[in-house]
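[Backbone geometry]
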Amino acid sequence: MLSEVFERKRIRWKKLNDIREKNNEKKKAVISAHRRISMICDNGEFKELDANLESNNPIDFPEYDEKRSELISKCHMKDAFVSAIGKIDGRKALIGAFDTRFLMGSMGTVVGEKIARLASKANKDKLPLIIFSASGGARMQEGLFSLMQMAKTSAAITKFKDNGGLFISVLTNPTTGGVSASFASLGDIIIAEPNALICFAGPRVIKQTIGEELPEGFQRSEFLLEHGMIDMIVPKEEMKDTLSKLLRLHSGKYVFE
């Protein structure tokens, strides 16, 4: 009897330890927005834009200000998105990247404004635009204001594209909710990282809704490539070379210094 109790406890602690190890692996795998941009820029150098934009808690959501202050101190950034200008093998580009450490990379008013400004500057300066998405979707702490960013960012990107601009959308793990359902799916070229979760609602929600088993790998980048939703899958290690080739192929439309 006593041995059975110890065995159950041993199994329970083993499961908890496995969960901790998986969580630690996930934390190690997270790439900050600044790091992601530096990985594709020449010499890891870039100029950050609009770094001081900060939310004012538009719906007075409880404890939102305190949580943001904590994350600003911890992540050394004002919100979940970094805008920058840099060079990729000598070719100028405007680059944006989400950071999942900041409220799971959720899109609120500041993120939407940064993306809109980035698209506007790309349009004005005739530069290609590259955005790395990694997000849980719209930010619930900003209510309807966060949902409005879906239309705002999509309109800004569409205007840029209609004027002949090149928009490369890079989908990383995870790209979900209002981000996947708006500007992230509007790329002239859509790249995904291997095994990235790309969806609006997650597989667990869909499974519970329809009451059926989902296909293996459903909503992962490989599944989406097979079904024509994305153009290519590129590992992080090959991202800079791939983007450089794409910029060279389209360089006739743009002014590079």
